[in-house]
Amino acid sequence: MQKTKTDIVVVGAGPGGYTAAFYARDKGEKVVLIDRTERLGGVCLNEGCIPSKALLHATKLIKEAKSSSSRGIHFGEPQINLDEMRTWKNGILDKLGSGIRQLAKKREIEVILGRAYFEDSKTVRVETKTGQQFIEFDKAIIAVGSKPTLPKTFDLGNPRIMTSTEALELQEIPENILIVGGGYIGMELGTVYSTLGSEVVVVESLGGILMGADADLV
Q1: Which pLDDT belongs to residue 217?
Q2: Fewer CB within 10 Å, N side or C side of the chain?
Q3: How high does pLDDT run on average in the chain?
Q4: Do residues 72 and 151 touch, judged by C-beta distance below 8 A?
């Protein structure tokens, strides 16, 4: 069984993984970077901060257009095309993901797409579309990110019940939407859907929203 040998293997190409890989390579280490998705960048770029901020920027234009009437500038009702908005949002993600891949290539970091399994303390097996690959390493960095939690009570297999991942895909603008969780993810998506025309209700179990943020921002 032939193995690829490397100094450091990094599992996960999100902000934690790719920055660690870049730093290690800049220090002279041989690095292999493993991720499951074609578009590098992890949860933050694909299903979190970046698409959320893109949609916030897009919908902010609607708010600004409406508020401009007080300054004597009048616009008609916006015509919203969700397919075009989704394509625009995904184009941003593709561009940023391509940038990460180019930075890895420039540093001569080997990128492998697949799911990683640790065979032992020095070997990782990667299940790729073309078969198995084995990497023998001296050190490993595990940066596999996060995923939304869906309580069993809500896990009914109904497309009307979404996590933030599905909500970012903008399949429709519902007449009303209930958001469980008043953290930054819930409030950002609530702002997006509210601006697009949904009636939004946020439910939070703690004493307030955006816990940990400055009071004036809350």
Answers
A1: 85
A2: N
A3: 94
A4: no
What is residue 185's three-state secondary structure? helix
Which pTM was predicted?
0.89
Q: What is the dihedral of CA 109, 113, 118, 119, to 10 degrees?
A: -100
Q: 76-114 pLDDT, tens per residue?
A: 989 999 999 999 999 999 999 999 999 999 999 999 999
What separation in angstroms does the CA of 17 have from each of 11, 68, 136, 166? 7, 43, 18, 24
Q: CA 208 → CA 72, 118, 178, 218, distances in Å?
A: 37, 42, 17, 8
| pLDDT over 90 at 199, yes or no | yes
CA torsion 94→95→100→102, rounded to 10°? 110
Neighbours of 22 (CB within 10 A): 19
Whether the CB-CB separation of 96 and 117 falls below 8 Å is answered with no
Question: Residues 6 or more apart from 177 whose CB is under 8 A from it?
Answer: 190, 193, 198, 199, 200, 201
